[in-house]
Amino acid sequence: MVLEIFRRREQKYLITVEQYMMLVDEMSPYMRFDKFGRDGKYTVTSLYFENRNYDIYFETKNKLPFRQKLRLRIYDDTDIGGAAFFEIKQKHKPEFDSC
């Protein structure tokens, strides 16, 4: 049996404009602009869905082994007839017996 365990850790930092410019200068030789955006950039708009009991919120807060997010995402398109993507993001963590 193959068991995959995923771990993800995020840390966010507030940086100055000078630090930002230094990071861009250091990383730009190794990166490329996104070909889908004008000037390599575009806006992403996300709308997350929840029910009246806030079940999705509490799944995340309580770190349940199974949790999900429901999201509507639009990429740089403000036209009402433009494309939107409805996503169901799920996380499944195996539960282990503590024998």
Provide structural commentary:
The structure is a single chain. The protein is α+β, with helices and mostly antiparallel strands and 99 residues long. The protein has a domain at 33-92. Helices cover 18% and strands 24% of the residues. Strands 1-2-3 form a 3-stranded antiparallel sheet. The chain is extended. It starts with 16 loop residues before the first helix and ends in a 7-residue tail after the last strand. InterPro entries: VTC_domain, VTC_sf. Residues 8-93 form the VTC domain. One of its GO terms (biological process) is polyphosphate biosynthetic process. This is VTC domain-containing protein.
**Biggest β-sheet, characterized?**
3 strands, antiparallel
The H-and-E topology, N to C, reads as HEHEE
Strand order of the largest sheet: 1-2-3
User: DSSP strand (E) fraction?
Assistant: 15-25%
Question: What's the Cα radius of gyration?
Answer: 19 Å
Quaternary state of the chains = single chain
Shape: extended
Structural class: alpha+beta
Number of strands: 3
The average pLDDT score comes to 82
| Low-pLDDT residue spans | none
Q: What is the number of helical segments per DSSP (H or I, 4+ residues)?
A: 2
Distance between the termini: 20 Å
The percentage helix is 10-25%
